[in-house]
Amino acid sequence: MKVAIIGGTGYVGLITGLGLALHGHDIICMDTDTRKIAALNNRELPIYEDGLAELLKEATDRNKVFFTNCLQTAVNKSEIIMIAVGTPESTNGETDLSHLIQALKLVANLMDSYRTIVIKSTVPVGTCDLARTIIKDNLKNRFIPFDIVSNPEFLREGNAVRDFLNPDRIVIGVDNPESAVIMKELYQTFKVPIVLTDTRSAEMVKYACNAYLATRISFINEIAEISEKVNADIHAILESMKLDKRIGGLYLNPGPGFGGPCLTKDLKSLISFASKAKAELPLFKAVLERNEVQINNIIKFVISELKDIRGQKITVLGLSFKAGTNDTRNSPALHLLEKLIDPKIRIHVYDPVVKSIEEPLNSRVSFSKSIEEAVRNTDCLIVMTEWPEFKELDLETVYHLMRNPLIVDTRNIFPYNKALSLGFRYKGIGIGIGIACADNSNGTLKNII
Ligand code: UDX
């Protein structure tokens, strides 16, 4: 099938377009960003995603995708128009639909015959109804048939290519059987369940999933805080919880709180449009509050530890909002840096793929070329993301490189008993003082903070 992706150079649009190309469809990725379009036509990627380079090569080698700035070309040469433009958070927590509305108006002006218009972007419930009105109003009194479809995505950054090619399910919201047939044909080569529903329910699925995922993270971060206070070990707790099939073992890792461009934004949007529908959401408001508490607790701890540190060099490993991506949007690491910046403190940072961050932070930290350079003579090592190269660090080597053996491990990537036996002062997430009692033979009690 011939598919145009509007907003076709972003995380969602590009991966969706290339993934559909791999499934044999003829894809036109359209974007107003001429720099990114030129890069893609040069087979250069504007974003970092594992497996994306191979996907781009495969799709372009097969001549199944091309990139353009021209919306007229995209509309003329396609039967399905998938809109994957950004729907960022507005200042009041609502979703900014301006890019989507603009795209819909332009598409309506350019359409000359039937099109299936698919909304891939994450949008508040009821947006497909709005889209229907916008298209009708902008057809300039021409009668041109069209359908509006909701087709939310569930891509995780750092895993997005795999998530697109191997989805758990495909969700499609339609308001008539004809568009259902078209969408089933589009995804017929994906051997996964297709959930067919109405547009409002399909729009709501995305929020329900992300709200649940965010709740899981705030839940385990709260359990971790209690564990620290009652001298329990989050590792043992998690091991036991995960064996309960109703709870499961995925997506239950304590950390510095959830970051990234989606979870917080989607929760705020959900709370906002729910409030307009006269539904107050105390649970989801609490999930956001807990998330703020999580990073603030870590920041408070580090600042309190710094006052006791002789020198003033600290090291932050990991700047993106999680391992596997170079995206620093709403990154807990950047929230931490914003609070730590101080003329008396030399902050050295290292990230495998992030080589610069926004100002004024960028010029206030030193980017180290290697982990060793970042860690050498440091007084406090703070791990913010769980890259494999951080997990594989040899703690004994790290111990001898550091000036003051203090580790703040916000991802629990290091075995705390090994860190303690080497003589580190160690702070994890959810690791209570009492568990050192079991290992207190070598007097490590004082070193669990
Ligand atoms: C999320 C959803 O997973 C995805 O389905 C949706 O389409 C977009 O939003 P993403 O934000 O890319 O994806 O990454 P995700 O892997 O969900 O992580 C989000 C944040 O939660 C990160 O900061 C991550 O470090 C944190 N997290 C995740 C935890 O702290 N603990 C976990 O167990 C999992």
Could you characterize what this model shows?
With 449 residues, the protein is of the alpha/beta class. The protein has two domains: 2-197, NAD(P)-binding Rossmann-like Domain (Rossmann fold); 241-428, Rossmann fold, CATH 3.40.50. Helix content is 43%, strand content 13%. It has 18 helices and 14 strands. Strands 3-2-1-4-5-6 form a six-stranded parallel beta sheet, sandwiched between helices. The chain has a six-stranded parallel beta sheet with strand order 11-10-9-12-13-14, sandwiched between helices. Strands 7-8 form a two-stranded parallel sheet. Strand 7, helix 8 and strand 8 form a beta-alpha-beta unit. The N and C termini lie far apart (59 Å). The structure holds uridine-5'-diphosphate-xylopyranose. The site of uridine-5'-diphosphate-xylopyranose has 19 residues, from helix 9. The site of uridine-5'-diphosphate-xylopyranose (UDX) has 19 residues, from helix 9.
